[in-house]
Write a structure and sequence with these properties.
The chain is an alpha/beta fold. Helices cover 30% and strands 13% of the residues.
Length: 273
């Protein structure tokens, strides 16, 4: 069923294309917003790139921060429900990979379609965290790192921009710190763990814990450093294309080949509220 009449969600920079064969929902990492995916194509093959915009940043700067990934997932599932009527997957880099895990678990609990894949780039498995240099930094050090982030996104780190962005980065880092998973949690969908050969922030060798999160976990190491993904390198898009089939139904526990109708998705969502 086409969803062109569905009202645009504040979580999405643009309304998903009803003609796309599959959707890749992309989470930003700490201190950033959805525009970090501006250098990605809007579509590669028949897969549409759908950048997600959490509250408290960019066009949602006046909204309160989500504070925890669980709270983020509760809000986002409601907003995503109309767009789960075809194959989809989650992609996140560094801290941006963790909300994809939280949202997947929330979808499963609500009986909604599941992603065909969770793509976790440059992040340790949830039960191996919280992990990362940002967690050990004070505000001054975070401010310096923020300047690096802005430069890597193609911007100019002015004092005003740093002042504004620091508050967001501090809150995002705190959300990461709060995400404590004592033991491996089995996800009801496959996982692709993507490491980067030159990454000194999250070395690929630390990502082995993802094997415990899914019966189908594929590991790959791509050429490049921690920020190489920002340019949507062809090797990365090729791995996503390999693992996100176009034309199959949305991810469900029985892996049905028939897409779940939008009406059924919305009925399940309403029943789970």
């Amino acid at each position: 069923m086409a969803n062109s009449g569905v009202k645009k969600s504040r979580w999405l920079l643009r309304r998903p294309d009803p003609e796309a064969g599959a959707r890749l929902f992309c989470f930003p990492y700490s201190g950033s917003g959805a525009t970090m995916y501006d250098r990605w194509p809007r579509r590669f093959g028949d897969i549409e790139v759908c950048p997600l915009q959490p509250p408290g940043r960019q066009n949602r700067i006046r909204e309160p921060h989500y504070e925890t990934y669980e709270r983020l997932a509760a809000d986002l599932v409601e907003q995503l429900a109309p767009y789960l009527d075809r194959p989809f997957a989650f992609f996140g880099h560094c801290s941006g990979a963790l909300p994809g895990v939280a949202v997947t678990r929330r979808l499963a609990a609500a009986g909604l379609p599941l992603p065909h894949r969770v793509f976790a780039s440059a992040q340790v498995a949830p039960h191996d965290g919280p992990y990362g240099s940002f967690l050990r930094m004070d505000r001054g050090e975070l401010r310096e790192e923020l300047a690096t982030i802005i430069v890597n996104l193609g911007g100019q780190p002015t004092e005003a921009l740093l002042d504004l962005g620091l508050e967001l980065l501090v809150k995002d880092v705190e959300a990461n710190r709060r995400y404590v998973v004592p033991a491996p949690v089995r996800l009801p969908c496959p996982v692709t763990a993507i490491g980067w050969s030159g990454d000194t922030v999250i070395p690929a060798g630390l990502m082995g814990g993802w094997r415990a999160t899914s019966a189908d976990c594929r590991e790959v190491v791509l050429d490049g450093g921690h920020f190489a993904f920002l340019g949507a390198p062809p090797a990365l898009l090729a791995e996503i294309t390999r693992d996100l089939p176009v034309g199959a139904g949305p991810g469900t526990e029985d892996h049905s080949e028939e897409p779940m109708p939008l009406d059924t998705i919305m009925e399940r969502h309403q029943a789970g509220r």
